[in-house]
Amino acid sequence: MTFIEQWLRTDIRDIKAYNVPSSKNMLKLDAMESPFGIPENLQPDFLDCLKRAQVNRYPDANAEELNTTIRSLMDIPNDLGVLLGNGSDELIQLLAMACNSGDLIMSFEPSFVMYEMISKFTHLNYEGISLNENFEIDLDITVKSITSKKPKLIFIAYPNNPTGNSFDNEVIKEIIKSTDALVVLDEAYYAYSEKSFIDEISNFPNLIVLRTISKIGFAGLRLGILVGSQGTIEQLNKLRLPYNINILTQASANFLLKEKKNIHNNAKTIIDERGRVFKELSLISQLTVFPSQANFILVKADNINSLNEFLKSHGILVKSFKDGSKLKNFLRITISKLQENNTFLNCIKDYYGKS
Ligand code: PMP
Fold this sequence. Notes:
- The chain is an alpha/beta fold.
- The protein has 13 helices and twelve strands.
- It folds into two domains: 22-39 and 261-351, Alpha-Beta Complex (Aspartate Aminotransferase, domain 1); 57-258, 3-Layer(aba) Sandwich (Aspartate Aminotransferase, domain 2), CATH 3.40.640.10.
- 4'-deoxy-4'-aminopyridoxal-5'-phosphate binds at residues 32, 87-89, 112, 157, 161, 186, 188, 212, 214, 219, 224.
């Protein structure tokens, strides 16, 4: 055993690191990124704005201008508080750090894997309540489970990753009412869904909403947003590391997130493309295609490994799941712009002999 293996917490030594596959020269349809970069006409002003960033100084610790920009982009009412993180992953970690060691975090199965990973890092327990065969919440089972296990924190991805559906909002309200846990509605895919819980925050003291700019064109900037009552955000802010939003992210996001129309139009393009890709995939009888409110689509098929290898050999990277997992027969495909979606569709039709 090496020094570090001996030295490290055994539970950390025994887990596998979060794996990001190499994507060099591949068409990246695996990580729900946006295909749209910075519009050409904005690039000179964007560079000017970066030039003015004083990288020899610490960034604005409270990121005040960025706070205002985000509130305007996401229509966050002034009476709510906003906490910014280095990606929403950092905010999930911050919430876990606010728990007592040994507390329970609950979410659903399948859902975003970082809820469980971060629980482990932070000495918390984790339990995922199984979704039914349509990936919906069984309210009875959920409330019983919550009542008996008394979680401290509940994450609900809305829409859910990797399934793409948005759970029934009345069901979610029942869950919020049934528990003393802090309930986090993770709206990472808000731009592709019609529904949000931001307006419900004032009705439930135990509700907060998590968002990110990663799925609307800015994954590289690493910026997550937690929205809650002023009092909730004030307390949670104590756990934030000083200067967690670096100066280049603040400068870039302040510039780029003011382009509301552009961001909105890009989201609309992806929603339209999602409809088209869904229809085309539904014509392939070997596939089961799941409706999505996000910028990706989940599909199920026999021999999924062979399909995945075929796509890979044609330079297309999509998300597959571990052999032991419940999703081992599924692939999750990010929706991109027309040309890239066509490259993917042609390849999958080719595989099934339909071209
Ligand atoms: N929440 C959900 C539901 C996600 O799917 C993801 C990213 N895949 C995140 C949070 C993390 O996003 P970020 O890039 O802001 O860390």
